[in-house]
Amino acid sequence: MTKKIIYSVRPFREEFIEKMKEIAPDYSFQTEVASDELSEIEVSIGWNREYQEEVFASDHLKWVQSISAGVDNLPLNEFADKEILLSNASGIHVESISEHVMGIILGYSRGLFQAQRAQLKKEWLGSAIHYQALEDQKLLIIGTGHIGKKLAQHASVFGLECIGINTSGHPVEGFKETYPLDRLKEILPKATIVVNILPLTDQTKGLFDAKVFEAFDEEAVFINVGRGPSVKTADLITALEHGELAFAALDVFEEEPLAEDSPLWEREDVLITSHIAGQTPHFQTKFMDIFLKNLQSYIENKELEVNEIDLNEGY
User: Fold this and answer.
1) What region holds the D-isomer specific 2-hydroxyacid dehydrogenase catalytic domain (predicted)?
2) Contacts with 90 (C-beta within 8 Å, 6 or more apart), sequence order
């Protein structure tokens, strides 16, 4: 009998392939599939749009394990219609992204970005350098999941007061206060540092628009390590031009890579990083810790143990 296929869009080390074989001996792990094998794919690690039509036509696919935390680029409606299980890699990038954000907060508060620009011009700034104490400043973390909680933990060490926004406003450990997303504009004026870590859903697409930026404290720093399309780029540029916020650090964008003619490149009140916040050492080990747990539970009872996505909610 032909083995059922676990297809992966990327290779993994032999040690992990051996563990897959131990858990699922009746399955074949493959990073390449012939056209006549597409109908045999039952589990997909990552998603290959090139194979999408053929894989859906077979009705054999039962589970997709996303390699990233974000799943907004996947055909969620089709997964729901065909009752295909979906899990993501949430949790892998917790330390990397929270450290990235803290690097930005520290770099801005001590004037390091300003000093770097001055160095290139051989300009001695002296007391003209921008600096501010972090202690007792309010950090608004929009998205209080794994990454948000880790960020709050790091930030509290520096004396930052962490407040959070999540869908319902439910309390979360490490946050002094939490509020529902529909109160965002009301809460924004309280914060001098605002970090977006939200997933992309119908509710969060284009969330940061002109009206939201108007609610920012004019001295606030905005950091986006969530999803690019949650921010309307043109509205952000206008807000910066009008002084509605002081600085923006952007790791994700509506369209990537960011166009060469984007005015964001030239702005001294913007830091651009090229979607690198989530780069994580030992990725395979951390990812396989999630996948192998799910593979075990899938083989045993066709359920997923960790990080299952609600296809109706998109996260």
Assistant:
1) 11-304
2) 69, 145, 146, 307
What order of strands is seen across the sheet that includes strand 270-272? 177-180, 161-166, 138-142, 193-196, 221-224, 247-250, 270-272
- CATH T-level fold of 94-272: Rossmann fold (3.40.50)
Rounded to 5 degrees, φ, ψ at 105 are: -60, -45
Answer yes or no: 93 catalytic: no
CA distance 272 to 267: 10
pLDDT (tens digit, 9 = 90+) per residue, 74-123? 999 999 999 999 999 999 999 999 999 999 999 999 999 999 999 999 99
Q: Give the domain ranges of the chain.
A: 4-91+282-301, 94-272
308 has catalytic annotation = no
The pLDDT tens digits for 258-313 are 999 999 999 999 999 999 999 999 999 999 999 999 999 999 999 999 999 999 88
Bridge partners for 210 per DSSP: none
Active-site position among 93, 100, 146, 227:
227
The domains spanning 4-91+282-301 and 94-272 adopt the same CATH topology? yes
Whether 256 sits among the annotated catalytic residues: the reply is yes
- Catalytic pick from 78, 256, 303, 313? 256
Which numeric CATH code is attached to 4-91+282-301?
A: 3.40.50.720
CA nearest neighbour of 100 among 154, 139, 143? 154
